[in-house]
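# nightly structure sweep
# worker-07 picked up a monomer target from the shared queue
# config: single-sequence mode, recycle default, output format = structure tokens
# input follows
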Amino acid sequence: MSRKTFNLIIKIALTLLALASGILAFALQMPGRSLVLASIYGILYFIAAISFWFEDKKSWIQIVMIASLVITLLLTIAQSIAGIPLGVFQGSGILFSWMMVLFVSPGVLGLIYFNLNTHHDNWDLLNVFMKIILSFEVGIVAFMLIFMLEVSGGMIWSLPRWGQYLFVYGIMLLAILDIIYAIINWLNFYHGKIAWITTALFVIEVVACLPFFGMPTVPVIVFVIIMLAIVIFTAYLNNRIKATKCIIFCGKLNKGLKKAQVR
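# output follows
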């Protein structure tokens, strides 16, 4: 089988999965908890299905595709944990599990396929695997921040008016920044100081927000330590791989220039 035929088959499969997920999202949103959020969920699948075929044409299309895939992953995490945005929570056991597999498959398979070329090695494979885990972890953190707002009504009302606005919008801003962090991890420009600065900010956020989730238990502390270790290792691995590729590319470029000068 030629590479062109293989690419065509993969894109058709991803498109069908994304279309099926989008149609199912619209079919299940009535009477969902959030009509607007559920509609965004379904529309993102349709955007991903279209962008699969044009991601190599323009760089901004690739960014839109990655953003769509990552956000659908994060919303699927929220759906599996709390039934948001579709209002379907632990519905019928096996049926619910298969539904979650369908919703998550375009994101996971799409991110793997479009981030591994024909010349990838084990380090590239590990890097993509770690980024998928990181996306799930960031999604859980973003969801927990929003969930914290839902269960902190009494504490929020006890604050002065300016404090209420500051707390609510501050937490929502952190959740949005977490989503952006998960997206930019997949972009080509993400390496070097940018990677370390954003990773450090995420680590600070998790540590600073930990007291808001109640008295930390040993399992929670262990989970947080493992999560932060994965985040830091992913940033290191991403920088190492891209720096190595940059050195190889620069070496080949210099050889090409020298050959051109000799001629």
